[in-house]
Amino acid sequence: xxxxxxxxxxxxxxxxxxxxxxxxxxxxxxxxxxxxxxxxxxxxxxxxxxxxxxxxxxxxxxxxxxxxxxxxxxxxxxxxxxxxxxxxxxxxxxxxxxxxxxxxxxxxxxxxxx
Length: 114
Prior knowledge:
Layout: H1 3-17, E1 38-46, E2 52-55, E3 64-68, E4 73-79, E5 87-92, E6 105-109
Antiparallel strand pairs: 1-4, 2-3, 4-5, 5-6
């Protein structure tokens, strides 16, 4: 048995002993409103900072679909928990500075909304 194959078996065995969480963990994928813990009537916000990432899910591990800049319009539907340290789910109201199309749904860190 080659050294490379032995090393692969050791890594796989260790991962399986840890519950498979290392080798078999799914990649982060887009999450809709299913991650919401607090729903709200639709409220329009403006982005209060430049450089906020618009993501496919509530957290940095999710794919960034683009960047939001101060003044971009966002319609808020719900969030993950209390407003501080939470992620807000909603849609873009009009095409953003960076070209994200109106109607695109996604997540933004709540503290970047005003």
